[in-house]
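Entry 14: structure prediction run for Protein Churchill. Input pasted below.
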Amino acid sequence: MCNDCVKEEFPERDTMCLETGSYLVNYAGCNECGGRDILIKNRIVSEDEDELITFQHVCLHCEHIVANHEYSFKVVEEFQEYEMSCLLCGNGEDSRSIMPCDPRGPQS
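Run finished. Output tokens:
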């Protein structure tokens, strides 16, 4: 992971949890070659009881590793739990009821 390739390390993304894609607003450019294009490589999906997706954000031109991205999804009792952690895309987590009406009431 490269702190110099991002504008802000692990920005807070509230409930935003991405299982694919890149948060390009936070990409300063490749510190190695100056390139502005990024791609996803080494994507691994593990689906045991929980779903875990990991991949790397990599410079298209020199293959410099910008960040490692981790996304998880699991069901805990009556809720779907999502989490994301990535130097480029940031940290986020969300919880949604699997019931038609959320017993916690409306979420803001």
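Notes: The beta strands are 38-47, 51-59, 65-76, 79-86, 90-97. Will compare against the previous run tomorrow.
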